[in-house]
Glutathione S-transferase
Amino acid sequence: MSILLYELVGADAARPFSPHCWKARMALAHKGLGFATVPVPFTEVPTVEDGFATIVPVIRDGDHRVADSFAIAEYLDAAYPDRPTLFGGEGGRALSRFVESWTQRTIHPFVSTSRALVSIHDSLAEPDRVYFRQTREKVFGKPLEEVVVGDEARLEEFGKKLNPLRSLLEKQAFLGGDTPLFADYIVFGAFQWLRVVTPWQVLEAKDPVAAWFERCLDLHGGEGRKVSAAA
């Protein structure tokens, strides 16, 4: 029986966009495990697996249910040790926590205050649009359209913040070295989030980060390319 992966989607059930769900999807593909996806809009997240979690991704693997992308990766490495490792050992798992923290403090804040924010809203079905706008505007204290003003001006500074990542990828193909590890999927999920929701190009073609992202899109039979870029 295939593993079930619950993914966040908008009005188009075939276009999952959550960076965390993409981490889980790539982890499953990395392990070579068969899985089926279950599309979940924002307002139905609390109903997943009879209220098992308040977030997605969630996986069901037989009798096992796991929520949170990092916990899912840890579960997969423990449950399927004979398949390609996601962490390469305890040290890699600990370093992946650092990568997760860096990504959520560097890439996610930029994406979530850029034009992607409005694009996500516009991609949702009506009940989810209401929920998304209300919850996000409560956090930001102003309309979504005002939050994203000036994102083009912030792009240069965002690019500078990628220099640690850029420097590493000038020397090796993946964060994991010659082959990817879960750390790669953590960062990949953030850029895939942008790719799926907006055609805005934040990386120049010559950027080592852009070249790495293209390599990630090609991994595991092109898993990342199964959802086309926003037009």
